[in-house]
Specification:
Elements lengths: L1 E5 L2 H18 L4 E4 L6 H12 L9 E4 L1 E3 L10 H8 L11 E2 L8 H14 L5 E4 L21 E4 L2 H7 L12 E4 L2 H5 L3 E6 L5 H9 L17 E6 L12
Parallel strand pairs: 1-10, 2-3, 2-6, 3-5, 6-9, 9-10
Antiparallel strand pairs: 4-8, 7-8
Helix pairs in contact: 1-2
């Protein structure tokens, strides 16, 4: 595992964006696995800035997103499709027909999960997967549990996740309780994984995820088994990592 220590959120975002831009420049037809939430916003802002400067071209790139809330359509401002359009896709020259997000309006969970897994296979898998890290160790919406869920599945969100996402909604009652999420196997099959973390509040879960036992009670701990993972964090988030790890 490679670890890059950044000064702050902005520096973290730039370092992670450098990795993603290099992937696109080296292989313009690559498949990017993308995440939502507050962590990647700075990464997407940086990528859009480099696109505007003419440094990067996304016209042949494809993307697949980790997850989507059940019950929210793409026009809903709280949906992850809307988030991606606003924060990245509308600001670069990617063909939106080549950007994929689970269909939150599909009522048949098994059908949608099969469709999404087949889509990823048809694209040839994910070249670089961007991840954030939840306070309880979740990646995507793979919550702590008794086992690692392998494939795309519909998950009941943990109360801690609902509370963390409450700030994006009018009230906690408005936060969807279920979501479609890419499974651990799909994430682990990505050729490269880049995980970004910032803030003192993430320091303990970073330590547990990357320097503790591998357990489904800390879903991100499975990333220790990946052979090409890069952790990019600011000083606060990495403050509990042993110095010899750098």
């Amino acid at each position: 595992m490679k670890i890059y220590r950044a000064k702050d959120f902005r520096d973290m975002s730039r370092k992670a964006a450098n990795i993603i831009s290099a992937q696109v420049i080296l292989n313009p037809q690559c498949v990017l696995g993308l995440a939502t939430g507050s962590s990647p916003i700075g990464v997407y802002k940086q990528l859009a800035e480099w696109y505007r400067k003419g440094d990067i071209d996304f016209s042949e790139t494809k993307s697949v997103n980790l997850d989507e809330y059940c019950g929210l359509g793409p026009e809903n401002e709280q949906s992850y499709r809307f988030f991606m359009n606003k924060n990245l896709f509308d600001n670069i020259n990617i063909d939106k027909n080549n950007t994929y997000v689970p269909n939150g309006l599909e009522p048949d969970a098994q059908k949608e999960c099969r469709r999404y897994d087949e889509l990823i296979r048809r694209l040839g898998g994910i070249d670089t997967q961007l991840l954030g890290l939840g306070h309880n160790g979740h990646i995507g919406f793979n919550e702590p549990g008794a086992a690692f869920d392998k494939d795309t599945h519909c998950v009941e969100l943990a109360q801690s996740t609902i509370e963390a996402n409450r700030r994006f909604f009018a009230s906690e009652e408005d936060v969807p309780k279920r979501a479609y999420t890419m499974g651990i196997r799909s994430i682990m099959q990505a050729r490269r994984i880049v995980i970004i973390v910032s803030g003192e509040g993430k320091a303990e879960i970073v330590r547990k995820s990357f320097f503790g036992p591998i357990t489904p009670e800390v879903p991100a701990s499975v990333l220790q088994l990946h052979n090409n993972i890069t952790l990019v964090g600011d000083e606060a988030a990495l403050s509990l990592i042993p110095e010899e790890a750098f």
